[in-house]
Each structure stands twice: as structure tokens, then as C-alpha cells.
Amino acid sequence: MKRRSVVYEGRVQGVGFRAMVSKLARPMPLTGWVRNEPDGSVRLEVQGDEIDIARLLASIRQQRGETITAEHTREMECVPDEQGFEIRY
Length: 89
Hints:
By secondary structure, the chain is of the alpha+beta class.
């Protein structure tokens, strides 16, 4: 079990980015959340198997790679008993 924080920069707010991430993540065996940040970036925290996290991140790049100018990833401690994937406001 792994947890990653990913911050996306570029044209990622006001273009349905969070909804797209949520739509991709929900069918996968992943938990976490996605939200807009005050600086114009979008933060994703995702938890699950390394392969599933990699699949999600690759799908995000495939769907919106042209609008992402930077992607900053770091590992985090897992959140026990987290359930579901949500869009945070």
C-alpha cells in the first residue's frame, strides 16, 4: 500500500480537471481526493497499490498532458481506513 501526493500545474483549474481525475480514479481500487489549490494548481492525494497508482497517473497524463506544465510527486504516509475517492472543495 502506497500513498502519493501529486501537484499539477498548468491549465488545470476551470477545465474539468478534478472531475476527470475523479472519474478515472473511482472505478480503480484507490482511495483519496483531488482539490484546487489557491495558487492555481490541483493537488491529488491517492492511496492504493503501486501499479494502480501508476495506472491512474498515466491515464491523467494521457487525458490532459497538453494542459499540464509541471507535475510534482512525493510519497506520503498511508491514511488508515480511508474509503472512497472524492473531489474536495
